[in-house]
Amino acid sequence: MPVGELINQYLDHLRVERGLSGNTIAAYRRDLRRYVEYLDRIEITDLAEITASDVVAHQAELMSEGLAVASVARSIVAVRSFHEFALAEGVVMTNVAADVHPPKPGKRLPKALSVADIQQLLDGIDTSGPIGLRDRALLELLYGTGARVSEIVGLDVDDLTRVLPDPQLGLRLLGKGSKERVVPVGSFARSAVDAWLVRGRPAMLANAKHSCVALFINSRGMRLSRQSVWAVLRDRARSAGITQKIFPHSLRHSFATHLLDGGADVRVVQELLGHASVTTTQIYTQVTAEHLREVYVSSHPRARRS
After folding, report:
1. Among 134, 201, 252, 253, which one carries the catalytic annotation?
2. What is the mean pLDDT of residues 89-115?
């Protein structure tokens, strides 16, 4: 049977029997039209002539045209579904596209700030008042421990007053699945938190209507929320002139990336981040590998032709 004729029957099936929306059917029509155009170029007009290699070659051609992986995947799903329909209708004896799998989108690599950006972000905070002291302590602790925002906003004052006097003691964090881990607190974070507890937090509480045991509080004396942390980071990044889109998790990504750049073992970073599997942590090794390639290409005299 001619491919184009069966595609029209398949689109009718999608509309009448499966009740798909007009937009979805239009997307299938575009993807299958592209498939037919490819088959025409290789001089295939009959469905029985198509092989699995032809479907694979069509996918490779789509990739070579620079289409987004998601667009290629959608097109191949449409082709596979069309061949399934042909098999169900008894037009062919086998589904040649059954073993052709759509490409998987690559993992989105975390966007880490540079060490210089971190320095600019933190040093740009005016700590002459309680809000500045709080924000400096908050961001120093996020970057210095690699903690999740939920872990930091969940801290109470007692969690830090035990740790600050003794550099050997680590900070206990309660992570996902109520799993507890202990992370070191560096000297910069310790100094910033100590300044917040001594000079900032009492001053903020003096004018607040409420009081709570939370380490980080807002001007009303209540525990700082995750949304408030995002707002703090956004405003501080803007003030520091950082144009990169930044989120609280960016500091966690930066923590991990900078440790690995400095030679830390991936399993140590895994423990510090509280990842259940080292596989999750290894995504950061891809970031540092890319960084190394960029440095090599830009710095080595024989890395590329001018």
Report:
1. 252
2. 81
Query: Quick one: pLDDT at residue 109?
Result: 56
Looking up tokens 């694979």 gives 56
Question: Is 135:128 a contact under the CB 8 Å cutoff?
Answer: no
The closest of 199, 200, 223 to 211, measured between CA atoms, is 223
> Under a CB-based contact definition with an 8 Å cutoff, are residues 224 and 153 in contact?
yes
Domain limits at 173? 115-297
148 is catalytic: yes
**Residue 275 falls in the annotated catalytic set:** yes
Counting the structural domains of the chain, the total is 2
Residue 288 and residue 156 share a domain = yes
The catalytic residue among 58, 83, 258, 275 is: 275
Of 148, 190, 201, 236, the catalytic one is: 148
User: Residue 8's domain is classified under what CATH number?
Assistant: 1.10.150.130
Residue 291 annotated as catalytic: no
Q: Residues 274, 237: one domain?
A: yes
Is 249 an annotated catalytic residue? Answer: yes
Residues 258-304 have pLDDT tens digits of 998 888 888 888 889 988 777 677 777 766 666 666 666 676 666 65
| 176 classed as catalytic | yes
Dihedral angle computed from the Cα positions of residues 86, 88, 90 and 94, in that order, rounded to the nearest 10 degrees:
70
Alpha helices in the chain (DSSP H): 3-16, 22-41, 52-64, 69-88, 115-123, 130-145, 149-153, 157-161, 187-195, 201-206, 226-239, 248-261, 266-273, 278-281, 283-299
106-110, 136-140, 217-221: least confidently modelled range: 106-110
Residues whose CB falls within 8 Å of the CB of residue 86, separated by 6 or more in sequence, listed in order:
6, 10, 47, 92, 95
Residue 10, token pair as written in the block: 């398949």
Cα torsion 245, 258, 284, 124 to 10°: value is: -10
